[in-house]
Structure formats: structure tokens, C-alpha cells
Design goal:
CATH architecture: Sandwich
Oligomer: single chain
Bound molecules: copper (II) ion
Radius of gyration: 15 Å
CATH class: Mainly Beta
Largest sheet: 5 strands, mixed
Strand order of the largest sheet: 2-9-8-4-5
Strand content: 35-45%
Distance between the termini: 25 Å
């Protein structure tokens, strides 16, 4: 993480704390498969994003961008685990390289959150 980005993150955290406990009720990304910033040995068939809160499928979504900056088509988005895990399938045989996942989520309390992470498919 670069220094300006870190500073921004710290600032955002301070603002969030300043707003009080409410800020912690949003749907934050808790974990993902493939793991955020992780490397997988084989192309994944699906992505799982697990949030801290139940989310609304209709107003939540994921955009996947491949190594060639091309959009990776996703399909069959559904919720599991008490609506906290968003699962979607990606085409089989994703080629090796770096992928970027941009997500947005509307939690059941009506708050919108978004973020992004990357994962790498090993050659
Ligand atoms: Cu909230």
C-alpha cells in the first residue's frame, strides 16, 4: 500500500469512528474466495464474497476485470449463508494473470458500501 493511500484509509477510518457505531453496521467484505490479494493454483469456477451483514441481491453486484483489462462475464449471482455471502460463477478456464474484483453492496439496513480487491491465477 502506498503512503498517500494509507493516509486516506486512516483518515476514512477516523471519519467512520467519528460517525459512531452506525458505521460498523454496513456490509463490509469479510472474506472472499479466491482470497483477496491471494493467488490460486487453478482457475476458479466461482467467486464467493462474504459480508459482515446480510445484503440485498438486487442492489449488490460484482464486476470482474481480467489480465487484458477485459470484463469477465459473471453469471448466476445468488446469496447464501443468511444472505451474507454473494456467490457468482465465472467462465471455466480463466487464463493466468491478475484479476480485479469491484463490488458494491446494499446492506439490509439500507447502507451502500463498495470496494475492490485483486486475485491472481497462477500460470
Ligand atoms: Cu449500515
Amino acid at each position: 500500500m502506498t503512503k498517500p493511500l494509507l493516509a486516506k484509509t486512516v483518515l476514512a477510518s477516523l471519519i467512520a469512528v467519528g460517525l459512531g457505531g452506525q458505521a460498523f453496521a454496513h456490509a463490509h467484505l469479510k472474506s472472499a474466495v479466491p482470497a483477496a490479494d491471494g493467488t490460486v493454483q487453478a482457475p476458479p469456477a466461482e467467486l464467493d464474497l462474504t459480508f459482515s451483514e446480510a445484503i440485498n441481491l438486487k442492489f449488490s453486484g460484482v464486476t470482474v476485470t481480467g489480465p487484458d483489462k477485459a470484463a469477465v462475464p459473471t453469471d448466476g449471482a445468488m446469496l447464501m449463508d443468511g444472505d451474507t455471502t454473494l456467490m457468482l460463477s465465472v467462465p471455466p478456464g480463466l487464463k493466468a494473470g491478475a484479476y480485479r474484483v469491484d463490488w458494491h453492496a446494499l446492506s439490509k439496513d439500507g447502507h451502500v458500501t463498495k470496494g475492490s480487491y485483486g486475485f491472481t491465477v497462477k500460470p
